[in-house]
Specification:
Layout lengths: L5 E6 L2 E10 L4 E10 L1 H18 L3 E12 L3 H9 L11 E4 L3 H13 L7 E4 L2 H8 L7 E2 L4
Parallel strand pairs: 3-4, 4-5, 5-6
Antiparallel strand pairs: 1-2, 2-3, 2-7
Length: about 150
């Protein structure tokens, strides 16, 4: 894929690519996960998302889990992450999690409910199109952020 820098981490023998891209016009940070997601991979992704949010100061963010092939993160980890400070600190800024599979959708909803006090504008959706509609974006031009 052209225009994407892959910041990769290795967990339990599997390579988990993270994609962080930014749309400067709409000021949207898009974070995507591909492949196998474990507790450790999800925690690292969350940490990196916070770094990129601090770097770009987005008005909105999208975490896209559409390309995840195996989601092995535990409900305990989801609850733990929901208790952390939000990756994007301003609670008024909208954020979406794209979670097409039933299992990931359910765990993302758990994250949404558990973190409702600090992330009141978080929405879990099934498609990227739903996320763009919530954010009021019709066209976006994402550019890759350099890997950490």
């Amino acid at each position: 894929m052209s225009g994407i820098i892959w910041a990769q981490a290795k967990y339990e023998g599997s390579l988990v690519p993270y994609h962080f891209e930014f749309d400067e016009t709409n000021r949207i940070l898009r974070c995507r996960l591909d492949g196998r997601v474990t507790d450790e991979a999800l925690k690292e992704f969350y940490r990196l998302a916070a770094e990129y949010a601090a770097q770009t100061d987005p008005r909105a963010a999208v975490a896209d889990l559409s390309a995840v092939t195996s989601f092995e993160a535990s409900p305990q980890t989801i609850r733990e992450l929901a208790k952390f400070a939000p990756a994007m600190l301003d609670p008024t800024r909208p954020r979406c999690i794209v979670a097409p599979s039933p299992k990931i959708f359910g765990l993302a909803r758990m994250f949404e409910i558990e973190g409702e006090a600090t992330r009141p504008n978080l929405r879990v959706v099934r498609t990227p199109e739903e996320a763009w509609a919530i954010l009021g974006v019709q066209g976006s031009q994402f550019k890759a952020l350099l890997g950490k």
